[in-house]
Each structure stands twice: as structure tokens, then as C-alpha cells.
Amino acid sequence: TDSLKDTEASMDDSSEQNLDNLDKIGNDLLTKLVSAVNLETGLLEPIDPDEKVTNADALIDFASKLVAERNRRRQAQFST
Question: 38: domain range?
């Protein structure tokens, strides 16, 4: 579920306390399992509970794929 309170969700609160809270929330999210909303129940559920893939793992994997795609496109651009 959304764990942001009103002050944390505010786009114009750049106080040190709020930024520290957002940093903590972000770091906590990185350790949680990758999840998605179950359209039948409306609940947030792990995508693959057996795999135990965290959001941090998924971000690293996604970044690796982006780098590989960028390199592929650069190579294709220079080889033509």
C-alpha cells in the first residue's frame, strides 16, 4: 500500500525532515519484493513469491538491460 503521508506526498515540502523520511521510505521499498496489484482483489501481491526478487534486484536487472540496449543501438549506429 501507499505509505506516504500528506506531508511526504507533498510536492512542495523540501524540509530536511521530509527529505529524510522520503529517503527512508525509498530505501525500505528497495528491500521489498517486486509486487503488482491483483486486478481481481485489488491487493498488492508479490509477482513471484518463490523467486524472492526485491525491487533493488529488479532495478539492477532493468538498468543492465537498458545499458545493453544502448550499447546495441550505438554499435548499430556506428556500423552503418
Answer: 6-79
- Along the 80 residues of the chain, how does pLDDT read in single tens digits? 466 788 788 888 889 999 999 999 999 999 999 999 999 999 999 998 898 999 999 999 999 999 999 999 999 998 86
Evaluate whether residue 1 is within a structural domain: no
> Does 51 reside within a domain?
yes
Rounded to the nearest 10 degrees, what angle do helices 16-31 and 55-79 cross at? 90
Q: What's the total number of domains in the chain?
A: 1
Alpha-carbon distance of 8 to 21, in angstroms, equals 7
pTM, 2 dp: 0.76
